[in-house]
Amino acid sequence: MDNKELLQAIRGIIKEELREELAPINNRLDKMDNRLNKMDDRLNKMDSRLDKMDNNIIEINENIKELNKRMDKIEKIVTDIEPKNANRYIEVDGDIKELKADVKIIKEELNKVEIVTSKNCFEIEYLKAVK
């Protein structure tokens, strides 16, 4: 056997031993690579979910802006209505006071009518008794 053949034989042995020694390491690296791929998939799914959440947040913010605009309009309408309602309240309050006064006068007049009617009934009975 010459040196070249000997060198090739040694290389072959070393390669085989390295393969045997590196096989568990390669297996571990393959497992780690699989785990990293799974983690990458999970991260991609999380990114997708976060993107959807971002879109939902943007939509919610737009809805809030729209609701704020509507609330401002309603607030303006209510602000405009309040003085009108106050004026109506004053008018209605005045009308109620007038009605109370009128009812009081009517009661007083009715009492007078009752008194006069009772006197008339008494006088009619007196006249009937005198005949």
Automatic annotation (TrEMBL):
Domain called T-SNARE coiled-coil homology: residue spans: 12-74
InterPro entries noted in UniProt: T_SNARE_dom
Lineage top rank: taxon: Bacteria
Keywords in alphabetical order: Coiled coil
Entry coiled-coil feature ranges: 15-116
Official protein name in the record: t-SNARE coiled-coil homology domain-containing protein
Lineage, uppermost ranks: Bacteria, Bacillati, Bacillota, Clostridia, Eubacteriales
